[in-house]
Write a structure and sequence with these properties.
10 strands; globular; alpha+beta; 2 helices; about 20% helix; Lipocalin
Length: about 170
């Protein structure tokens, strides 16, 4: 009896320990091709807005490599955080804006190599009304390993304004 209880406990422990590895191999758990391409942004980036204002962006993989975290600082303004995640064959992004809302955007299906990722507005949390100011679109363009840009579109009461940030890799 003791041997069968020990064997059952050993089998259960082995199955429990193998579960994370099996989950990583599950086809629905694999990042999209687009997400694999965005992973190349990991590192430190310095940039400038067209008007000349300087900024810094930091990218790191988080949550076991399943999400890409961007931390953006511009001068003395509050830091903003953006989280990029795979969503099947699309990419999703949630931007934690200093305006106090959290727009969520997504790409269309990404089936092969691209250098421009276009995120369109889906919804936002903590948005006072549909016309209240919020980030409505994001385009991330990767020129090469050391250069990239982001074009953020701010929508406020039906008026849109695009701000382009150009970055150079620091590390």
């Amino acid at each position: 009896m003791k041997i069968s209880i020990t064997a059952a406990a050993l089998a259960l422990a082995t199955a429990w320990l193998a579960t994370p590895a099996a989950a990583q191999d599950h086809p629905m758990m694999r990042p999209s091709k687009g997400f694999d391409q965005l992973k190349a942004l990991v590192g430190e980036w310095d940039g400038q807005v067209v008007s000349g204002k300087t900024m810094h962006a930091s990218y790191q993989l988080v949550s076991g490599g399943t999400a890409l975290l961007e931390r953006l600082t511009m001068g003395n303004e509050p830091e903003m955080v953006t989280l990029f995640t795979p969503d099947g064959d699309r990419l999703a992004v949630t931007h934690y804006c200093s305006a106090g809302n959290q727009p969520q955007m997504q790409t269309t299906a990404i089936t092969g190599p691209i250098n421009e990722f276009s995120f369109s507005f889906v919804r936002a949390t903590n948005l006072a009304s549909a016309t209240a100011g919020h980030m409505h679109h994001l385009t991330v363009t990767v020129q090469d390993h050391d250069h990239m840009s982001e074009a953020w579109t701010w929508s406020d009461n039906g008026t849109e304004h695009v701000e382009v940030f150009r970055y150079t890799r620091k590390s």
